[in-house]
User: Fold Aldehyde dehydrogenase from Rufibacter sediminis.
Amino acid sequence: MLHLQNFVNGTFQAPTSGAYLPNINPATGEVYSQIPDSDERDVQAAVEAAQAAFPAWAALSAEKRGRFLIKLSELIDRDLERLAEAETTDNGKPLSLSRTVDIPRASSNLYFFGTGVQHFASEAHHMEGVAVNYTVRKPLGVVACISPWNLPLYLFTWKIAPALAAGNCVVAKPSEITPYTAHLLAELCVEAGLPAGVLNIVHGTGPKVGAAMCEHPEVKAISFTGGTQTGKTIARATAPMFKKLSLELGGKNATVIFADCDFEKTVATAVQAAFANQGQICLCGSRILVERSLYARFKAAFLEKVENLTVGDPLEAGSNMGALVSAAHLQKVQQYIALAQEEGGTLLTGGERVHLQGRCANGYFLQPTVFENLPHTCRTNTEEIFGPVVTLMPFDTEEEALTYANHTQYGLAASVWTQDLTRAHRVAHALQAGIVWVNTWLLRDLRTPFGGTKQSGVGREGGWEALRFFTEPQNVCVKL
Ligand code: NAD
Assistant:
């Protein structure tokens, strides 16, 4: 059986403990590989390797560093099929999604920052006739990148690329639930000739490996994407050490639909926003708010489309939805379905586990599930489910829609559907969310600030925001 290895100082290494954890294919329920059950000793070795590599890496020109990242992006493009299959095997998502979204985006992340860093400049502030200030942006040193299971290589590279481009050396940990493509990326780093120790990947659990990375005194910044509770743990552990933190956390996003929307486009995208990646995207629109005059028509059209979604073997081209990522996560989502019923919700469609035939007979499949008749204040409507479960809610006025949309501790994303230009802007500005889409969803420009407000996170990723996060500004004031 395949045993993944840590990637430390440019070499593949077994965990110091000698212990491994099973890695399960969620579409079949079978253990198909073993991953290192690493601990603080492996983190220590990785930090030391990163520290040793840092001076030479930081001294390279931005162009030279950028070229390594561009090379990696080209290797990802070359290996698209292999990486897409690996992602689907690890995560359960449809192969079509891995092939068209996850892996191409991983390549784009590396390409984007590999080229972008060459245009990264710092500011100068001229005090007329008195002095000139200029800002030097220095890499931080060793930084940690910790990513979740829902978009494995996509989010792993989204962190690593700007960290490396800015001149830092990285100790990274993919989710222990989906470690495979990070392992394959390490192989590509060797092929790309990335200097040893510049990127180190330590596999294992959050409480052991992730915590050791965050608490290590030589790790200067942590870029984390994952759950809000884990974000709180990291913030608590690192606050006394004054580390820089970028936290991209949970969401409970609203899709706000007005009666004057482009109906067909709205229904089609609302379905996609609800159930793409089995509803396991932090940006998924899980609360669908519809103006009352359109509610009945929207509900009928939405349910028709949802019932036409095919839940199936993620390797089959016709599958719109694959497996949930793990047995534990399936159980969590099922508990929310039970909760929605306890809270008085009306189940409109779905709610049941899907039992497939053949190789996927033991996979973690769930029907796309839609509820209505739940108050905007209930747990189902305020807590992150992170699965294929959504609610429909009618509203009468714009104010009411905003009250519903903003009634959650999260503030990651939202989408607004209307043909009224003024209203679109007004509502967008009043939504408590870091990202608002108008008449679209998940359209991404990598230059824009990405992240959430409230309990959805601290800081922003993307573009200059990420390069600024991964650098320390120093002002030099020169008297004229
Ligand atoms: P998680 O918080 O359980 O794990 C994320 C990562 O953190 C994993 O690598 C895990 O091993 C590690 N980790 C766990 N405990 C740790 C600790 N004490 N110290 C350091 N690291 C630790 O999240 P998950 O279940 O993998 O992912 C799902 C969550 O991620 C959802 O809440 C989702 O909304 C969120 N998410 C947010 C974004 C965003 O951009 N805002 C994007 C994707 C996913």
Remarks:
- The pocket of nicotinamide-adenine-dinucleotide is lined by residues 146-150, 155, 173, 175-176, 205-207, 210-211, 214, 225-227, 230, 233-234, 248-251, 282, 384, 386, 412, 452, 456-457 (CB under 6 Å).
